[in-house]
Amino acid sequence: MLEATDLHVTFRSGGDTVKAVRGVSFAVAKGESFGIVGESGSGKSTVLRAICGLAPTTAGVIRLAGTPLAAPRSPDFYRKVQMVFQDPYASLHPRHTIDKVLSEPLAIHGFDRREERIEEALADVGLGADFRFRYPHQLSGGQRQRVAVARALILEPEVLLLDEPTSALDASIQAEVLNLLDRIRAERGLTYVMVSHDLAVVAHMCDRLIVMQHGLAVEELTREALAAYRAETDYTRKLLSASEGYTPAEAP
Q1: CA-CA distance, 161 to 135, in Å (whole number)?
Q2: Which domains does the chain carry?
Q3: Which residues, listed in sequence order, are joined to residue 144 by a DSSP beta bridge?
Q4: 22 has which bridge partners?
Q5: pLDDT per residue as tens digits for the range 119-176
Q6: Confidence (pTM)
Q7: Closest to 44 (Cα-Cα) out of 86, 98, 101
Q8: 111 burial class (0-12, 13-18, 19+ CB within 10 angstroms)?
Q9: Less packed terminus of the chain by CB within 10 Å, N or C?
Q10: First vs last Cα of the chain: how many Å apart?
């Protein structure tokens, strides 16, 4: 469904050059949930941005359903691929009602039955029709991220790119949003590519994953290998150890 081959992303500013992604390759099957993990600055979010055309592809090829993607991306691409960003506080326009947030993509892509689609999208993410004419500042963080998910789903895409969709939320709300995403994928047969620094989240959501460090994909793991701590690189083992959390030393 989605494939990256020898993907490179390089940013240049003045005399400075940053190689954010260096030769990353992966393939995601239709209906699969695929994870990309790594510490901050590893290049994982840049991969998602390169897929949707928000970061420049310096070299390599990205294919959707076997077809290489052109730059800039076509409107048809955005019908098939949508992204949910990390921060629900920043991804929604503060002066737009939820109705406008959801109606705008429908208008851009020429969808009919807009009223019904907006109500259905809100219901799909567990928000009632009374949320429709509220503003983002009137919603909690979890509710805002549900609106962001509804906005991504309203175009009926085949692929969702998820850039740390729960990292800005409280722990109690994270589980709700993750369970929501899991349910929607099962119901619609969607393909997910999820970026996270949290291995527990990826283990819950993803069938397979790659581990990134300094712009490189250093290891690929299945969910089963991750659960069994069968990591081949020291870097992945350190990530696994860090994901277990802080354990205070015993008092002497």
Answers
A1: 25
A2: 2-242 (3.40.50.300)
A3: none
A4: 8
A5: 988 988 888 888 999 999 999 888 888 898 889 888 889 999 999 887 767 777 788 8
A6: 0.87
A7: 86
A8: middle
A9: C
A10: 56
